[in-house]
């Protein structure tokens, strides 16, 4: 029975294996603790929920503004809205109206 001796590793091979192992460990570290890794997953979900709530709020504001623009159509403007805008922006009032300041 002959005994096979392991071939001695060259320093160049050991260095290449060490660099490859370091790269793999670095990639695994980023996969777990990186900005888009497993540990950041719950934070990303929380931010997504916050952004969706903000989008819903902005959409409701947009719908309100769209309604006001439709009411201010020059061809058939809503008289209540135009009166409200005149009173608030230009401080205009009818002679028979009484103005009460609320503080």
Short description:
This protein has 103 residues and is mostly helical. The chain has helices at residues 11-33, 41-71, 79-90. The chain has a domain at 30-90.
Give the helix/strand layout:
Layout: H1 11-33, H2 41-71, H3 79-90
Written overview of the protein:
By secondary structure, the protein is mostly helical. The protein has a domain at 30-90. It is built from three helices and no strands. The protein has helices at residues 11-33, 41-71, 79-90. The longest helix is centred in the middle third of the chain and has 31 residues, at 41-71. The radius of gyration is 36 Å and the shape is rod-shaped.
User: What is the strand tally?
Assistant: 0
Radius of gyration: 36 Å
How many helical elements? Answer: 3
Strand content: under 5%
User: In terms of per-residue confidence, which ranges show pLDDT below 50 for 5 or more consecutive residues?
Assistant: none
Major sheet characteristics: none
**What is the SS-derived class?**
mainly alpha
The overall pLDDT average reads 85
Reading the helices and strands in chain order gives HHH
Percent of residues in helices comes to: 55-70%
What is the 3D form?
rod-shaped
Q: What is the first-to-last residue Cα distance?
A: 106 Å
């Amino acid at each position: 029975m002959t005994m096979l001796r392991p071939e001695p590793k060259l320093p160049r091979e050991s260095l290449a294996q060490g660099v490859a192992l370091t790269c793999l460990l670095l990639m695994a570290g980023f996969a777990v603790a990186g900005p888009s890794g497993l540990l950041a997953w719950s934070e990303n979900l929380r931010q997504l929920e916050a952004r969706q709530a903000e989008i819903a709020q902005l959409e409701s504001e947009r719908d309100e503004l769209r309604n006001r623009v439709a009411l201010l159509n020059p061809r058939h403007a809503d008289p209540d809205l135009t009166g409200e805008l005149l009173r608030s922006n230009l401080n205009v009032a009818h002679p028979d109206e009484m103005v009460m300041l609320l503080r």
